[in-house]
């Protein structure tokens, strides 16, 4: 369970850039819809632009989360205790073990921060491997098509790479 929570927590900030992807998708659809020949671009050019936007999002996301307090200091992405531990948290705190609970939370979040830089490489590789067909599917797909693409392309690698980090924490 801890592994799943930390992997999801690591992936979440990168996928949060899906709003940027939605904006990019809307702009691309508007450009494609314009009949003016000056605004037309090839599918390859559109795919390249999408890859670059996603790459920049992955790099910015990694820089944000991989610094100290990237997770722990950000309430939007701070990783909580796993559900089974959360159920016992108040009881443990009532026994005067506040520091131990706080240390556990800090440890979980620090492990995710340490893993953030490594996650960037996995996301960038998935983006670089994106085909024109993938890019078209993302642009023509639903709101979370980009998120789903990245999730599909990165989950296995993220789990494999972060399992040792998670177990060590």
What can you tell me about this protein's structure?
By secondary structure, this protein is mainly α. It has one domain (2-168). Helices cover 77% and strands 0% of the residues. It is built from 7 helices and no strands. The protein is elongated. Residues 1-6 have low confidence and may be disordered.
Main β sheet profile? none
Oligomer: single chain
Tally of discrete structural domains: 1
Give the overall form.
elongated
Structural class: mainly alpha
Low-pLDDT segments: 1-6
- How many E-type strands? 0
What is the share of helical residues?
A: over 70%
Radius of gyration: 19 Å
Overall pLDDT: 81
DSSP summary: helix tally? 7
Estimate the strand proportion: under 5%
Q: What string gives the helices and strands in order?
A: HHHHHHH
Give a quick set of tags describing it.
single chain, 169 residues, mainly alpha, elongated, disordered N terminus
What order do the helices and strands come in, and which of them pair?
Blueprint: H1 2-15, H2 18-33, H3 43-66, H4 83-94, H5 98-128, H6 132-140, H7 145-168
């Amino acid at each position: 369970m801890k592994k799943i929570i930390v992997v999801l927590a690591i992936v979440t900030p990168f996928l949060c850039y899906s709003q940027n992807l939605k904006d990019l998708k809307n702009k691309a659809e508007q450009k494609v819809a314009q009949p003016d020949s000056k605004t037309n671009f090839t599918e390859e050019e559109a795919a390249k632009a999408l890859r670059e936007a996603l790459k920049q999002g992955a790099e910015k996301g990694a820089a944000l989360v991989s610094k100290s307090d990237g997770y722990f200091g950000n309430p939007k992405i701070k990783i909580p205790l796993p559900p089974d531990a959360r159920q016992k948290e108040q009881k443990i705190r009532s026994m005067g073990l506040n520091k131990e609970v706080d240390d556990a939370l800090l440890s979980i979040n620090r492990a995710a921060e340490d893993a953030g830089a490594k996650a960037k490489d996995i996301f960038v590789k998935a983006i670089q491997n994106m085909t024109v067909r993938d890019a078209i599917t993302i642009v023509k797909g639903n709101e979370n098509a980009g998120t789903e693409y990245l999730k599909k392309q990165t989950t296995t690698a993220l789990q494999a790479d972060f399992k040792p980090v998670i177990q060590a924490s």
